Amino acid sequence: MRNWNRREFTRNVGMLTLFSPFIRLLEPSVARAQAGAGPAKYLLMIVSNGGEPAMLQPNGGAFPEVLSPLGMLTDGFFLNQFDSRGTAGNHAAPGALSAANYEQTESLDNFVANDLIARGIVTQVPSLHLGGVKGQQGVSFKNNGMQVPQFEVTEAFRTIFDGVAAPPPAPATGGGTEQPVATGPSATAIRLLRRQSVLDVVRGDISQLESAFNGIEREKLQRHIESIRNLENRIAQQLTPADGSTVTPDVVGGGAPTPTFIAPVACQQPQNRAGDQNITNSGIHLELATAAFACDITRVALVEFGHHQSCPVDIPGARGDWHNEFMHSDGGERTRLRVTETFMANEIVKTVNRLKQTAAPDGNGTLYDQTFVLWAREMGDAVVHSGTNMPFVVTGGAGGYLRGGTGYLQGGGAFHLRVLMNAAEAMGVQNTTNFGMRNATGADRTAFDGLKA
Predict the structure, then answer these.
(1) What is the rounded distance in angstroms from the CA atom of residue 419 to the CA atom of residue 410?
(2) Per-domain boundaries in the chain
(3) How many C-beta atoms lie closer than 10 Å to residue 7's C-beta?
(4) How far, rounded to the nearest angstrom, does the alpha carbon of residue 396 sit from its chain's CA centroid?
(5) Who wins on pLDDT, 302 or 165?
(6) DSSP-derived 3-state class of residue 62
(7) Which of 138, 172, 185, 349 is such that its CA lies 20 to 30 A from the CA of 434?
(8) Per residue in 396-422, pLDDT tens?
């Protein structure tokens, strides 16, 4: 048997660890600035199963009866009668957040995250995609394909908080019993350096592995490599605050702005806990997304509730399958669907209250003041599989971008891309030419005026 030296052993273990799903087939300057951003600093998107339009009609007020908890919002709007133009009218349709059919485009979460990076605003996690149903594709779209959200709460916790500073312990006082200040690299810095070394030694083997695949497996591998590159960037950013050093970033060529690396702040991290079941699991993910904003680890988060094809639900008053039973089998009062809609409305209210109670990391007000919150549906009329009546709920301080008060806004058949444009515009996106349906022009490509202050 061949004897490996230490470097060979590290390389091979690293390759096995990082590329095991594919090998088996073979048999910067720390800154707090927000340069060039829009009035809103954070974008929180919540997506749930399509609804029944008759149930989601305003009943003499801002919000339908089943969404009555939303009446507690001091600022928020219910919108309906928006048309997806055929992009969000059936199972696995990609248009809910992309306003486009299957073509080379991006959903809103990825589009805004990439635009922030292009403007030099680089957070440790470009965007979060959480929740959904285990192993099922969600509505996030990039690289010409639907993406799978992170379902496991524990893994999401590690993705967000591993290596990020927690609040420093209170100093000891009195009696000469104080512990000496620790010197040398922190445990966090040592762990991150080890990870960086593994990535470094396998980098030279990546291209050889990539050449062994074709078609869809090659595309999967390329996405996997992209995630590793993102991890490398994150490690480089984490090392700076971990060991107290600073690095001046290289000026990016081609006229791109010098990156502003957003260093996470020392913040109160939530307790890591296991998920329960599908839609309550997503409620925990909403807590994690809020905490990620509070630590300035990311500026964009998408949390999905349910799945367009099948989603088991087990909450008081509603047990069964959200789409196949509540939507397609239940008749009459549709009690289980009503209960589930009200559950979702309560999740929005809890999230808004959490944002209001959490200080913004830059010290300017609360997270609510700086966040654009969008609740969207993966299709419009889920009873007949149609995207001609897309409902939305929009709330948040959004840096003053949104008009104040609450109310009902009717789209009048306008392209739902316009509501997505509101979110992009609030986040400071200047060029939306490549977002949404390619042939959309004129008013279809402008933000919906009814939402703007």
Answers:
(1) 12
(2) 9-33+188-260, 39-164+264-451
(3) 10
(4) 16
(5) 302
(6) coil
(7) 138
(8) 999 999 999 999 999 999 999 999 999
